[in-house]
Amino acid sequence: MAKPQVDLLVRKSKVVREGERALSLRAQEDRGRRWADDHGYDVREVWKENLSAWSDIERPKQDAAMAAVLAGEVSALWCFALDRFSRKGAESVIPLLGKARVIFDYEQLDSSNERDRQWILQRSEDARAYSQRLSHNVRTTKTRQRSEGRWLSQAPFGLKVDKARKLAPDTDEYAGADYSPWEVVVRIFTDIANGTSCRALARAFNVEGVADITGRKWHAGAIRKIVIHPVYEGWQAINPKRIDPVAYLDETGARVRCVPDDVVPHMISEELAARARQVLSGHLLMDRTPVPGRASALLAGRLTCAGCGRSMLASGNSYVCQTNQSGGDCAARASVSRVTIEKRVAERWLARVSASDPEDPLMATVAGRWTALQKPTETQELREARAAVSEAEATLGRFHADDRAGFYEGRSARYRMPAKTDAENRLTAAEERLAKLDTKSVDITFLTEGYAAQYWETAGPALRRELIATAIDRVRVSKAPGRGVRLTDDRVQIEWAITEDA
């Protein structure tokens, strides 16, 4: 006669130290197999998890194990201990009571025994209470350490951490090289602030053989992460389940230094960091005179693929979807002839600015951007102030988008007010700085009095790029309905540069 079958559910947290009872997965499995032999069962499946039992993430292995025993696929489910099963309290074990046999070996409890029901419920609530205390203690300790300026994880690229958990620039030169990791960081901020794209800088690093933290090739995303990270200015930072880190704020709402006071002057300056981020986000117009490594195509950086939302790159005689170009899969990837799309966009730019009257909200934006082009020396401070406002508005917008999406719920709720306060403070400071500056614009009536076409014809490639940029922020291109189909206006959606306060 065949023996009844039992599944084993084994779990060990990969994050939290749990004491002597935290047996390894192998030790738990061995113990479960001994139980099966002693009680006349055959082990059918071993469900292994290496994650926290008190977590917002899904536990597919536990769900599968519970479904199997509740459906009668096996006669029993064995688990080493109640806190291995779950730390979410009675709600996790109530569905099993009286419906399936689950063995909690450490406590010697059996969910199919009436006398064990009360103990299972009590012990599961005890496990929940323990987990909450542990979580609270860990959060409290980390909050205190962060408020003291201690860096709690591995030092970011270009930095090193001392015994007091404070950071400082890593100025030790690489073996066989005449530069240090910190010099690479400084170059990243400087080059991006001067208008070099992340992609172009990554290519330059790879050609030069510049080492990164992993020993692999540089990518644009790695450079972007360095530029946006507050730590390079010496600020404590948190990264709550998101790509972009934010400055950590203490209980008073103030940012916290994670470097010693005497190291602060050697960090990236606030001015250089702000400028690099403004250029990176596209809020600060730059001198676009063609130079090696800088985009020269008329619409580079402005075209996006409607299929995936990513940029379209100039490749040969066409603009192509970046996702497809990099080996990804865009179901509705767009591709368009450079000559055709550039002519179409230029025609629509000319038509719009020529037909606009000076009170058109678009022309307020054009005037501000044209002023920045015509008076770069006089308006540099103004340009940077406007860019700071735009960047701060975008940051606050991202916060509200995350808030509406439910990002700051559950265990991430504690990050909501610090992130909101930081975003609002940055916007307020940027607006106050802008209000103090002269905002007079140069005359742009030539664009609205019939001379735009003539000016366009006499402009060089770099100036044409900037003329487009005065009025157009983004151009979305949709996939053609078939090969060889001519470009139609409905496939080209232009996002005109009308600011909210224009």
Outline the structure in words.
It is a single chain. With about 500 residues, the protein is α/β, with parallel strands linked by helices. It folds into four domains: about 5-140, Rossmann fold (3-Layer(aba) Sandwich), CATH 3.40.50.1390; about 160-280, Hect, E3 ligase catalytic domain fold; about 295-375 and about 440-500, no CATH class; about 380-440. It has helices at about 25-40, 60-70, 80-85, 115-145, 180-195, 200-210, 220-230, 270-280, 320-325, 340-355, 360-375, 380-405, 415-435, 445-450, 450-460, 460-470, and strands at about 5-10, 40-50, 75-80, 100-105, 110, 160, 165-170, 235-240, 245, 305, 310-315, 320, 335, 470-475, 490-495. The strands form five sheets. It has a five-stranded mixed β-sheet, sandwiched between helices. A three-stranded mixed β-sheet has the order 10-14-15. The protein has a three-stranded antiparallel β-sheet with strand order 11-12-13. β1, α1 and β2 (about 40-50) form a beta-alpha-beta unit.
Summarize the structure.
The protein is an alpha/beta fold and 502 residues long. The protein is 41% helix and 12% strand.
Rg, please?
30 Å
Low-confidence stretches: 14-21, 285-294
Number of strands: 15
Number of helices: 16
User: Which structural class fits the helix and strand makeup?
Assistant: alpha/beta
- The total domain count is 4
Q: DSSP strand (E) fraction?
A: 5-15%
Main sheet attributes: strand count, strand direction, barrel closure: 5 strands, mixed
